[in-house]
Specification:
Blueprint lengths: L14 H9 L1 H34 L7 H30 L9 H31 L11 H19 L2 H4 E4 L2 E4 L5 H31 L1 H7 L2 H33 L7 H32 L1 H38 L1
Antiparallel strand pairs: 1-2
Helix pairs in contact: 2-3, 2-10, 3-4, 3-5, 3-10, 4-5, 4-7, 4-9, 7-9, 9-10, 10-11
């Protein structure tokens, strides 16, 4: 999860603060964390998530099980978050190019809208995955765990995020080369960020905590009711949910402090430390999107077998090519000897 609502009210265009920040030891630590850790997570996570999506699509599981449809969507969203959220913020920091939202005023507004939708979409998909796993063992509710319902839920989540995030189109403006909220203090700039944060983070976080407890309480019933494959799907979903909670709780707490604006945060020496803590917490949130594929491969035999079969197929293909080359070479040598 990435914080995109800065309620601090502290202008980073203040030259004296910029000088204080750039000369502080905290800036060096912040720079090291952002420059070296972020691209590692982006590359590893993108490869892993696209591998998960490819395996689900190749085996046509995306259109057979609702939970696999959610996993497919979640893998794609993780890739988008890693590259469009973390990647686009990392690139200008390293190569000193203009951020895409700083190119034009309309790009500033559109980027803020898309950024919010992509960033907070995965949390609600995990909620949908957990609901699917909680209700699917029940014979009376199993009919809602279909591909059609999964597609419908995904569309509703998207529409809801657009409705909550559309305010960014008129709240943000490009001023002095930076994308800011320039409106005076009013409902949209003071109250609405809290409402948006509630739908973005707080509701899905509480929902996941509740669903995790329910799933654990029903675990014995799930083990008895499910096949081995369905049980693996449930175990993987539970671990993904737990990973999300653990990795995003720090940034959730930091964002709450940022919006609440306690008095101690206005001191510069405290604020620069807060920036470092904020960066570390964002990196922990990035870690979740990067390691989800590890959870799938460690808990589900489907992914391990697919990877093993791919290696075996590659080895057999390579051996076949080698045999053909050797036969061609032998034929050529025999032909030369005949001459």
């Amino acid at each position: 999860m990435v914080d995109i609502v800065n309620a601090s009210g502290m202008s980073m265009s203040n030259m004296s603060f910029d000088r204080y920040w750039l000369e502080s030891p905290e800036f060096r630590l912040h720079w090291l964390i952002k420059v070296y850790s972020t691209p590692t997570f982006i590359i590893a996570g993108s490869i892993g998530n696209m591998t998960v999506a490819a395996i689900l699509y190749r085996h046509q599981l995306t259109w057979q099980h609702s939970i696999c449809f959610y996993m497919f969507v979640y893998a794609l969203l993780n890739t988008l978050v890693l590259n469009l959220a973390f990647g686009l913020n990392w690139l200008p920091f390293v190569v000193r190019v203009r951020h895409v939202m700083e190119i034009a005023d309309w790009m500033c507004r559109v980027y803020q809208l898309i950024f919010r939708i992509i960033t907070y979409f995965p949390a609600w998909i995990i909620v949908a995955m957990m609901v699917d796993r909680v209700v699917s063992p029940s014979s009376s509710l199993r009919h809602v765990c279909t591909i059609f319902v999964a597609e419908l839920v995904t569309v509703f989540i998207f529409i809801g995020l657009v409705a909550i995030s559309i305010h960014a189109m008129w709240m943000y403006e490009l001023m002095n080369g930076e994308c800011y909220i320039l409106e005076p203090p009013n409902f949209m700039t003071i109250v609405w960020p809290w409402i948006a944060a509630t739908f973005y983070s707080y509701i899905p976080f509480v929902a996941l905590l509740t669903l995790n407890v329910l799933l654990c309480l029903r675990w014995h019933h799930i083990v008895v009711s499910y096949s081995v494959k369905q049980h693996q799907f449930t175990r993987a979903t539970l671990l993904v949910s737990v990973s999300y909670i653990l990795c995003n709780f720090p940034i959730l707490l930091v964002n709450f402090i940022d919006r609440a604006q306690p008095s101690w945060l206005h001191a510069w020496h405290n604020f620069v430390r807060f920036l470092v803590v904020h960066e570390v917490c964002q990196l922990i949130g990035c870690l979740h999107h990067a390691i989800t594929f590890v959870i799938y491969f460690s808990t589900m035999s489907l992914f391990r077998c697919s990877l093993k079969c791919h290696k075996d197929t590659t080895r057999q293909t390579r051996d076949s090519v080698t045999d053909l080359e050797m036969r061609a070479l032998d034929t050529s040598e025999n032909h030369q000897n005949d001459l």
